[in-house]
Amino acid sequence: DAGVTQSPTHLIKTRGQQVTLRCSPKSGHDTVSWYQQALGQGPQFIFQYYEEEERQRGNFPDRFSGHQFPNYSSELNVNALLLGDSALYLCASSFSWTGLEKLFFGSGTQLSVL
Amino acid sequence: KQEVTQIPAALSVPEGENLVLNCSFTDSAIYNLQWFRQDPGKGLTSLLLIQSSQREQTSGRLNASLDKSSGRSTLYIAASQPGDSATYLCAVGTTDSWGKFQFGAGTQVVVTP
Question: How do residues B15-52 score in pLDDT, each as one tens digit?
């Protein structure tokens, strides 16, 4: 049983470019959340997707957008990249949107913006 | 706004000692608290989940307690091993935002042989 998979593992972009990160949830999970983790800090909640809708959003600008597909996989898009967007981007999946179940994380995508 | 703090930021212990990791939160209106382990440059692995109605959870050498009224949780790791070296993070879910978790910055643990 595959866990949460994320691609790519590493990415280098320049300021102003756009990036798309991908996530496949653990089998049987229908909810995907995205987190941003800067070096030395805890993950910060970006948004959560359930039933192909953005259910909840953290304090991130509109440059951050996402999508969930019918097979529950998800994409995170970031436009007009800034140096400060350099971070580890983590995808987490769970059985439900409530948060009452354990979160399962992927290994993350390390994004470097030059 | 929920604030989650983990002190100390780093900890070094000799192999065999028990580890005590602390997590404090400012808003007691939580529905659960989770403890995670993170190895360098990797994702998070869930260790224990404590629902708000529970006082503690145990798994093998790990035991986590929760005191909602005082806004504290403690993770105990018995008889530490070098393989326990990692960063440990706690995450809190509050009832005004179901499904969104607030993380602490973590405690970096080094267990020396």
Answer: 999 999 999 999 999 999 999 999 988 899 999 999 99
Cβ–Cβ gap B100/A90 under 8 Å: no
Cβ atoms < 10 Å from Cβ of B82: 10
Query: Which of A103, A104, A107, A110 is best to mutate for the B interface (most B CBs within 10 A)?
Result: A103
Q: Kindly tell me if the per-residue pLDDT of A30 is higher than 70.
A: yes
Mutate to test the interface with B, among A44, A46, A102, A109 (most CBs of B within 10 A): A102
| Residue pair B104/B7 in contact by the 8 Å Cβ criterion | no
Chain A residue with minimum CA distance to B99:
A99
Any idea what the Cα angle at residue A19 is, between residues A26 and A72, rounded to 5°? 25
For residue B99, the chain A residues in CB contact (below 8 A) are 31, 33, 48, 50, 55-56, 94, 97-99
* Torsion region of A89: left, alpha or beta (phi above 0 gives left; psi -120 to 50 gives alpha): beta
Convert A63-79 to b/e letters by CB count within 10 Å (16 or more is b). ebbbebeeebbbbbebe
Task: State both tokens at A57.
Answer: 């959003």
pLDDT, tens digit, 9 for 90 and up, residues A44-68: 999 999 999 999 999 999 999 999 9
Place of tokens 């790791």: B77
Q: Chain A residues with CB inside 8 Å of B29's CB?
A: none
In sequence order, the 6+-apart residues with CB closer than 8 A to the CB of B70 are none
